Amino acid sequence: MLRLDLSNLDPRRVGAQGLDFAEALREEKERLEAARDALWGRRGDAAEFLGWIDVPEDTEAVRNVLRYRQANAWVEDFVVLGIGGSALGAQAVSAALGKGPVRLHFVDNVEPEPILELLRALDPRKTLVNVISKSGSTAETMAAFLAFRRWLEDALGAGWKEHVAVTTDPARGILRPYAQAEGLAAFEVPPAVGGRFSVTCPVGTLPLAFVGVDLEAFLAGCRKANETAQAGAEANLPAQTALVHDRLSRKGLNVNVFMPYSTRLRYLPDWFVQLHDESLGKAVNRAGEEVRTGTTAVRAIGTTDQHAQVQLFREGPHDKLITLVRLEEATEDLEIPAVAGLEALDYLFGRSFFELLSAEAKATAHALAKAQQPNFAFVLERLDAYTLGWLMQHLMWQTAFLGELWGIDAFNQPGVELGKEYTYALMGRKGYEPLAEELKAEGVE
Ligand SMILES: O=P(O)(O)OC[C@H]1O[C@](O)(CO)[C@@H](O)[C@@H]1O
């Protein structure tokens, strides 16, 4: 179960920075429902990249992943080679719900020392390497693949092939034909699913299967979010949180803090940052006019960052909307013991850690509101696969709704291409010689 607590948006609590939500919903009902209809209406068109809506319905893809997991019971270490959307979803969910005993590792950078450290620590005989790249052309991921493939072949000879699984587009890019030629296990990123929307396809489900995440429940939660995204505005939770973002960004609240009160959810903000920023930071709208949309998502974890960022959130510029994620129940709790001689701490004696966590979440939300800092919360009944699936698919919907409200394409990322081209030029890739010359003339070599 997931619900919204919007009480700290109320202008009676947070003043002019806030939002009379009921009134806004009445005013924007038509616009929100038009956005909903447009999104659902376009979902059959692969060019629209709305395939993530239907992926949670694809139970055959999950069965395929689970069969592969069962057939590879020898795996003790599972290495994901992927970056951005090809890593962040599995990283967020595995940190929250992974049970082991398989250890999951993520190589999402090209700094040599951590890669060497991992290679030295792993036993190739017990390691499965999953190279994940929709395009098959991402330099970081492909460099890592070249290194891990060589490492496996050096140790295992022709047996390296049993230790590699490829997750990529069914037709495009170089990885698919390579996997076919070498006879490697291969999984699909559906063409109509972009990286940051791919956690429900094998990009996410394959690593998650190896750490025992209940995939059926996770996808059932995603389907629940789909159900809410079909409702009229009064019950359409993603349209509602998109409305909050839309309205408050128009008041100049252009920083979106995403702050779960949970260490288990520590990577969820990283996943959200990519989803939100890469989708919504756009120079032009669908009509090609310059619009420069976007709000800046910022990571924070409660309670940890109460002691790092909350000072700024309360007393810094009034440019923020804060999204909290609160849990209603602990999965397991721990009592805080009484200790003689430390009676100054007796308010803690006999209380539980979860009680303290909950009190801190509510106290901080209220203290923020007292400083006229609008905030709202996703309240999760508990942290389980169903509820996390619901929340993540909700956030994908929220992003899609915002793209629609702002008239932009939330599913492309033209702004990251130029940096990639420059990298190719600096690395001496064939065909990039003129660009390398241009860079040299500009003082970059
Ligand atoms: O799966 P790929 O094609 O390697 O892409 C990885 C990431 O790179 C980007 O294309 C751009 O940074 C992201 O959108 C994507 O998630």
UniProtKB/TrEMBL annotation:
<dbReference type="Pfam" id="PF00342">
    <property type="entry name" value="PGI"/>
</dbReference>
<dbReference type="GO" id="GO:0006094">
    <property type="term" value="P:gluconeogenesis"/>
</dbReference>
<dbReference type="InterPro" id="IPR035482">
    <property type="entry name" value="SIS_PGI_2"/>
</dbReference>
<keyword id="KW-0413">Isomerase</keyword>
<feature type="active site">
    <location>
        <position position="307"/>
    </location>
</feature>
<dbReference type="InterPro" id="IPR001672">
    <property type="entry name" value="G6P_Isomerase"/>
</dbReference>
<dbReference type="InterPro" id="IPR035476">
    <property type="entry name" value="SIS_PGI_1"/>
</dbReference>
<dbReference type="GO" id="GO:0005829">
    <property type="term" value="C:cytosol"/>
</dbReference>
<comment type="similarity">
    <text>Belongs to the GPI family.</text>
</comment>
<dbReference type="InterPro" id="IPR018189">
    <property type="entry name" value="Phosphoglucose_isomerase_CS"/>
</dbReference>
<comment type="pathway">
    <text>Carbohydrate biosynthesis; gluconeogenesis.</text>
</comment>
<keyword id="KW-0963">Cytoplasm</keyword>
<protein>
    <recommendedName>
        <fullName>Glucose-6-phosphate isomerase</fullName>
        <ecNumber>5.3.1.9</ecNumber>
    </recommendedName>
</protein>
<dbReference type="GO" id="GO:0006096">
    <property type="term" value="P:glycolytic process"/>
</dbReference>
<keyword id="KW-0312">Gluconeogenesis</keyword>
<comment type="function">
    <text>Catalyzes the reversible isomerization of glucose-6-phosphate to fructose-6-phosphate.</text>
</comment>
<keyword id="KW-0324">Glycolysis</keyword>
<comment type="pathway">
    <text>Carbohydrate degradation; glycolysis; D-glyceraldehyde 3-phosphate and glycerone phosphate from D-glucose: step 2/4.</text>
</comment>
<dbReference type="GO" id="GO:0051156">
    <property type="term" value="P:glucose 6-phosphate metabolic process"/>
</dbReference>
<feature type="active site">
    <location>
        <position position="420"/>
    </location>
</feature>
<dbReference type="GO" id="GO:0004347">
    <property type="term" value="F:glucose-6-phosphate isomerase activity"/>
</dbReference>
<dbReference type="InterPro" id="IPR046348">
    <property type="entry name" value="SIS_dom_sf"/>
</dbReference>
<feature type="active site" description="Proton donor">
    <location>
        <position position="278"/>
    </location>
</feature>
<dbReference type="GO" id="GO:0097367">
    <property type="term" value="F:carbohydrate derivative binding"/>
</dbReference>
<dbReference type="GO" id="GO:0048029">
    <property type="term" value="F:monosaccharide binding"/>
</dbReference>
